[in-house]
Design goal:
Bound molecules: zinc ion
Cofactor: Mn(2+)
Protein name: Peptidase M20 dimerisation domain-containing protein
Keywords: Manganese, Metal-binding
Largest sheet: 5 strands, mixed
Distance between the termini: 6 Å
Structural class: alpha+beta
InterPro entries: Amidohydrolase, Bact_exopeptidase_dim_dom, Peptidase_M20
Strand order of the largest sheet: 1-2-6-3-7
Pfam family, one: Peptidase_M20
CATH architecture of the largest domain: 3-Layer(aba) Sandwich
Mean pLDDT: 87
């Protein structure tokens, strides 16, 4: 922005003068919550978002990287270009709340499987807040200059929608932003906010598929004397975290988990191979590379030592890149949060999760019941206060 909103009184006066009609957005929230759409299938949700943006007078770009939506509000000359993002998709979870607007929907996902669907990560709230902010920003356009990009991303669930939008020519249609802001509803007390002014916020996550191949053994017709890939693979997996921690040190935030293990076929006494899906979470690029190399080495060395006829095979995909805040952006926002929210603002704790935001918001002592976390079938944010909090035009500080 060409000028910065230095004090919270001025910010409050702008918000008070340009408050959107929140009933429009609580209505949107409840509708989208009751009619969620699974990742990469967000057609109707995108249409609902577009309808609100068009009503506000925005020119809307649609169908980017699937059902992605973006608008640009260029307001005066100069100022920064700021992108704000929300997510369109819901999760394959069976809702178990008793809300009157609970989802009972089932959908066929992109893989052809019928799944229950629920906005258990709160993307419905993130969307409602961004739409309400789009309303407020338009209404208050005499109070700021700059360029705002308001973006609704598909398929965050499999962390590929952002890439799909960029690959589909997002920045041929809209300017490249100078900075980007994302906010996410988390299981903290409604009306509170948390931010980490600088540094890593969410871990990098990689998926590694490993195949350990057993026989055929050479010089024998008896498959039983071959090295069985199942116990060997189980042993390697059980030793993996310790082996990595020992090499890189316990202070270097690298966690490993085995998320899948498949081996053997019914009726076959010879196990050809064992397939594993490993989840790797790290916070530093150089540690990430070392951890991946260490895992490969351990599999290779142990397979060779056990006399496996083949080296293991690896297939690595980036599930989520590291998320970290730049202090030029996080610093001023933290400053205005503190001034505006006082006690209701906390510093966000670092989490090793890349999608599970459950520990990001500080839960206050006077909350009697534990708040169901994102991805819980009981996830149910308090709508009005959360939406109002999520609508605040924080970028005006930048
Ligand atoms: Zn989410």
């Amino acid at each position: 922005m060409s000028h910065s909103i230095a004090d919270s009184t001025l910010l409050q006066s702008i918000v008070d003068a340009h408050q959107p009609d929140f009933s429009l957005y609580t209505g949107f929230y409840r509708d989208v919550h009751q009619h969620p759409e699974i990742s990469a299938m967000e057609e109707d949700t995108a249409k609902k978002v577009v309808a609100h943006l068009e009503r506000l007078g925005y020119t809307v770009h649609t169908g980017i990287g699937g059902h992605g939506v973006v608008v640009v509000l260029q307001n005066g000359n100069g100022g920064k270009k700021i992108l704000m993002r929300a997510e369109l998709d819901a999760l394959p979870i069976q809702e178990q709340t008793n809300l009157p607007y609970r989802s009972q929907r089932r959908m066929i996902d992109r893989y052809g499987n019928e799944r229950p669907v629920m906005h258990a990560c709160g993307h419905d709230m993130n969307m409602a807040a961004l739409l309400a902010a789009a309303d407020l920003l338009k209404s208050a356009s005499a109070k700021w200059t700059g360029t705002i990009l308001i973006l609704f991303q598909p398929d965050e669930g499999e962390t590929s929608g952002a890439r799909d939008m960029v690959d589909d020519g997002l920045y041929d249609r809209v300017p490249v932003p100078d900075l980007m802001l994302g906010q996410h509803v988390v299981p903290a007390r409604a009306g509170t906010v948390a931010i980490k002014p600088s540094g890593s916020v969410l871990v990098a996550a990689d998926s590694m598929r490993v195949r350990v191949t057993g026989g055929p053994c050479e010089n024998t017709v008896n498959p039983q004397i071959c090295v069985d890939p199942i116990p060997l693979s189980m042993q390697i997996v059980s030793e993996l975290q310790d082996a990595v921690t020992k090499e890189i040190g316990p202070d270097q935030d690298a966690t490993l988990a085995c998320w899948g293990f498949w081996a053997g076929e019914p009726g076959n006494d010879h196990v050809a191979y064992a397939d594993m899906l490993l989840d790797i979470k790290t916070v530093k690029p150089e540690i990430r590379r070392r951890v991946i190399d260490l895992i490969k080495e351990k599999f290779q060395n142990d397979c060779r030592a056990a006399g496996m006829p083949r080296d293991p095979e690896f297939n690595i995909t980036v599930r989520a890149p590291l998320t970290s805040n730049h202090d030029d952006v996080g610093g001023p926002i933290a400053h205005v949060f503190r001034a505006y929210f006082g006690e209701k603002m906390t510093e966000m704790a670092f989490t090793r999760a890349c999608e599970d935001f459950s520990v990001l918001g500080e839960v206050h002592d006077d909350v009697a019941e534990p708040i169901p976390t994102n991805h819980s079938p009981f996830f149910a944010p308090e709508v009005d206060l959360t939406l109002k909090t999520g609508t605040m035009p924080w970028h005006l500080q930048l």
